[in-house]
């Protein structure tokens, strides 16, 4: 059985006051006014879609454009 991946990205706003975006795989991004809202949504999606044999790759962009992975 091959392992499948679900990719979730929390994208830092490009400028102050812009919205945070959460992209789940190739779906249209969902936008949020605050980082905590975006992270809560990303975690909710990861938990709701987690299945045996599926690896969730959750990455969060910081204000310097670097990505960090979160382990669930």
Describe this structure as you would to a colleague.
It is a single chain. With 72 residues, the chain is an alpha+beta fold. Helices cover 21% and strands 39% of the residues. The chain is built from one helix and five strands, in the order E-E-E-H-E-E. The protein has one helix spanning 35-49, and strands at 4-11, 20-24, 30-32, 54-61, 67-70. The chain has a five-stranded mixed β-sheet, with helices on one face. The longest helix is centred in the middle third of the chain and has 15 residues, at 35-49. The model has no long low-confidence stretch (mean pLDDT 91).
> Helix segment count?
1
What profile does the largest beta sheet have? 5 strands, mixed
Radius of gyration, in Å, reads 12 Å
Mean pLDDT: 91
Which parts are unreliable, with pLDDT below 50 for 5 consecutive residues or more? Answer: none
> What structural class do the secondary elements suggest?
alpha+beta
Helix content: 10-25%
Number of strands: 5
Question: What strand line-up does the widest sheet have?
Answer: 3-2-1-4-5
Shape: elongated
Report the order of strands and helices. Answer: EEEHEE
Whole-Å distance between the termini? 22 Å
Strand content: 35-45%
């Amino acid at each position: 059985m091959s392992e499948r991946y679900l990719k979730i990205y929390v994208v830092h706003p490009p400028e102050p006051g812009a919205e945070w975006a959460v992209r789940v795989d190739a779906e249209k991004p969902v936008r949020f006014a605050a980082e905590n809202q975006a992270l809560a949504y990303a975690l909710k999606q990861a938990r709701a879609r987690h299945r045996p044999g599926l690896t969730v790759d959750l990455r969060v962009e910081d204000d310097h454009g670097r990505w960090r992975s979160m382990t669930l």
